[in-house]
Design goal:
With 380 residues, the protein is α/β, with parallel strands linked by helices. The chain is built from 15 helices and 13 strands. 44% of the residues lie in helices and 17% in strands. The strands form 2 sheets. Strands 3-2-1-4-5-6-7 form a 7-stranded parallel beta sheet, sandwiched between helices. A 6-stranded parallel beta sheet has the order 10-9-8-11-12-13, sandwiched between helices. Helix 1 runs parallel beside helix 2, helix 8 runs parallel beside helix 9 and helix 8 packs across helix 13. The two termini are 29 Å apart. This is Glycosyltransferase family 4 protein.
């Protein structure tokens, strides 16, 4: 039997990037891969924490307290030393880094240690975030350009839009970037009635909703304003938020001021949110930017049509006239029109699910990435 490929995965941030890594560890064949995971310990979310006992059965899992989100030269120097020690210890054949901070530290460490294959998945480049402009944005672009050209075998982009952004900034040659969509497993889901009972939502009314963090990236104030307009136009409808975050109280106040607070439900974080999306008749996502949002893929899997902002990632999940509709970022009126259209005349569940089955299964994602891990030689 040939020797297993020694794979080192490195991640700092949580959310979609951690879920992607969990799926890799769960799905890669243990007879072909010997996996080590380095993860930051300062931002372990509930999903990742719940997965850790299972991951430890399939991989060597190492926490790194210095792998943190904020810019801190002292933390970064210690994290670099930590990663280099691990690389020297396990001598990986492949290093695969996820998100910007782990992507920088991991790729530098791998380059310094002479690792033959170094892969990177940004999960939305930092320079795409609206809050980064001017000189700070150009610093991030410069870092990505240098690391791609000098310390990366191949970048896996989670959307065509993300890849186009990399090429527009001349980060590297086009052949150094490949699109691999996030995939999820096609698991049994509860019925609409079962999901609504679990969430405490009314049964015989239209319900729109979202499963997302109530944080700035998701533009939750635009979301609640859209919800308010829709509920004023449809007195029989309700709206549900599954998720928590810093904006919740402001959103509650906006719903009260609009006179719809009795029909806007804040349901908090739920570890089973990906399954309970079946409670919705339509899904609303108002993100300012994305990489490739898992929540939209979960909506497709559940057969729930989507109204989403026309931004990177969203525009590759939502196909106008097939599974939903797109509207401009921050446009409350257009968002309300889009959501009302889906409530009034939704596409069939089978039509919505077709996009998921064609493009977003976890098996497609795993097969593509595993083939690159196993490919002989390097692409540099």
């Amino acid at each position: 039997m040939p020797r297993r490929i020694r794979l080192l995965l490195i991640i700092e941030s949580m959310g979609g990037s951690s879920r992607h890594v969990v799926d890799l560890i769960d799905g890669l064949d243990p007879e072909r891969f010997e996996i080590t995971l380095i993860h930051g310990t300062s931002r372990v979310d509930d999903y990742f924490a719940a997965a850790l006992p299972r991951l430890r059965q399939r991989a060597r899992v190492l926490g790194c307290p210095d792998l943190v989100r904020e810019i801190s030269p002292a933390h970064e120097a210690r994290a670099l030393r930590f990663v280099r020690r691990v690389i020297r210890d396990i001598r990986p054949d492949v290093v695969h880094c996820h998100s910007s901070k782990a992507g920088a530290i991991g790729r530098v460490a791998a380059k310094l240690c002479g690792v033959g294959k170094v892969f990177y998945t940004p999960h939305a480049y930092a320079f795409l975030a609206p809050e980064f402009g001017g000189k700070k944005r150009m610093v991030f672009v410069g870092i990505e350009r240098f690391l791609s050209r000098h310390a990366t075998t191949l970048t896996f982009n989670v959307s065509q839009g993300e890849r186009s952004a990399a090429l527009a900034e001349h980060l590297d040659r086009p052949d150094k970037f490949e699109v691999v969509y996030n995939g999820i497993a096609d698991i049994p889901l509860p019925t609409k009635a079962e999901a609504r009972e679990a969430l405490g939502l009314p049964q015989d009314v239209p319900v729109a909703g979202v499963t997302a963090r109530l944080v700035e990236q998701k533009d939750p104030m635009t979301s609640v304003r859209i919800a308010a307009q829709v509920l004023q136009a449809r007195p029989d409808a309700h709206f549900a938020y599954i998720g928590d975050g810093d904006f919740e109280e402001r959103m509650r106040q906006a719903a009260r001021e609009a006179g719809v607070a009795d029909r806007v439900h804040f349901l908090g974080y739920r570890k089973d949110a990906d399954r309970l999306v079946t409670a919705f008749d339509a899904y609303l996502l108002t993100s300012l930017y994305e990489g490739m949002p898992y929540s939209l893929v979960e909506a497709l899997r559940a057969g729930v049509p989507i109204a989403a902002t026309r931004t990177t990632g969203n525009d590759e999940v939502v196909i106008e006239g097939e599974n939903g509709t797109l509207f401009p970022v921050g446009d409350v009126q257009a968002g309300a029109v889009a959501l009302l259209g889906l409530l009034d005349d939704p596409p069939s569940r089978e039509r919505v699910r077709a996009t998921y089955l064609e493009r977003f299964t976890v098996r497609r994602m795993l097969d593509h990435i595993a083939a690159r891990y196993e490919q002989r030689g390097t692409d540099e």
